[in-house]
Amino acid sequence: MSDPETGGCVSCGMPMRSDADHALGDRSKDFCAHCSNGDGTMMRYEEVLTRMAEFLQTAQGLDEQVAHDAAKDMLAKMPAWQQR
Amino acid sequence: MSAHSSGTREIGKQRTRRRILAKATRLCARNGFSRTRTLEVARAARVSHGSVFVHFRSRDELLSAVVSEMTREITDALHAQVASGASLTHTLAAHLECLAEREQSIRWLLLEIPLLPRGVHAPWLAFQSATSFHIGQAAERDMAAGSIEEMPLHLLFNTWIGLVNHYVINRELFAPNKSALRVHGPVLLEHFSNLISAPASMARRRKGTA
Ligand SMILES: [Zn+2]
User: Fold this and answer.
1) Are A64 and A53 in contact (CB under 8 A)?
2) What is each CA distance from B163 to B39, B166, B167, in whole angstroms?
3) pLDDT confidence tier of residue B198, bands split at 50, 70 and 90
């Protein structure tokens, strides 16, 4: 299972192409391994946001605040964070 | 209503959405993102103006869907390369090919991104990061083998993309009425590979054969 529109993780949007991409390697999970706690529950919003911002910084060298704001914009579109 | 007719309706709805998206993509490639209007898209897709907003809540959302769709295709192609164990050079060659196929749209995005609605920035930045991530995966293998220099991922990516984007943005200077990346891509790739390649002595040392 996954985001019906994109086929990606409902929390961060990462495409989930193989079983290993899903939380606990379990295809029935609609969020990815990166958004999963060790016990297979979904990480809190703040953790996902921090990780996403760090990813943007590592990949593109973005300014910290810019990366944080961009990560916030990205998560705002994700099904998992619509109730926030 | 039978399950059959609601299923058929859903397929029809998806088909209309895809047609609107395809026409919007084509108009953005031709005229730029900032000049593409929902009314034009509706006309091109042969639907009412209101129908566009049944599928996309706003122009902002339509443009962001165009960017998401186009960039997802590129990311998928890069992922396939990296998953097959391709070297950095092969991954970059695939990247160039993906960009060349969509050079017009990419050029508009590079020129217009600061002027476009904020909603378009997120998929664009997500795409740039995904590209960097995949290039980085191929690079890590080559760094571990000692065939290229070790360097931070963002500098590797920004050096490559800076070079490529310069040719795309200024294509009229480098390849008038042609694809800048089809004309100059092979030379840019060779030049970049030379820049980042590690001396042979270092490759031997890392493999422990020196
Ligand atoms: Zn995720």
Assistant:
1) yes
2) 37, 5, 7
3) confident
**Which of B114, B82, B128, B191 lies closest to A61, judged by CA?**
B128
| pTM score, whole prediction | 0.89
CB atoms within 10 A of CB B160: 23
Structural contact between residues B123 and B64, judged by C-beta atoms closer than 8 angstroms: yes
- State the best of A77, A78, A81, A82 to mutate against chain B, taking most chain B CBs within 10 Å: A77
Per-domain residue ranges for chain A?
A: 19-81
Q: Does A73 touch chain B (CB under 8 A)?
A: yes
Reported as a single tens digit per residue, the pLDDT across B101-138 is 999 999 999 999 999 998 899 999 999 999 999 999 99
ipTM (interface predicted TM): 0.89
CB-CB neighbours of B138 under 10 Å: 23
The residue-averaged pLDDT of B9-19 equals 90
At B135, phi and psi to the nearest 5?
-60, -40
CA distance linking residue B157 with residue B82, whole number of Å: 15
Q: What domains can be seen in chain B, in order of their start residue?
A: 1-56 (1.10.10), 59-209 (1.10.357.10)
Amino acid found at B189: L
DSSP string, B131-149: HHHHHHHHHHHHHHTTSB-
Which residues face A32 on adjacent strands? A22
- From B174, B189, B24, B167, select the one nearest B107 (Cα to Cα): B167
Ion ligand 1 neighbours, Cβ < 5 Å? A 9, 11-12, 14, 32, 34-35
- Collapsed DSSP state (helix, strand, coil) of residue A31: coil
Give chain A's end-to-end CA distance (angstroms, integer): 22
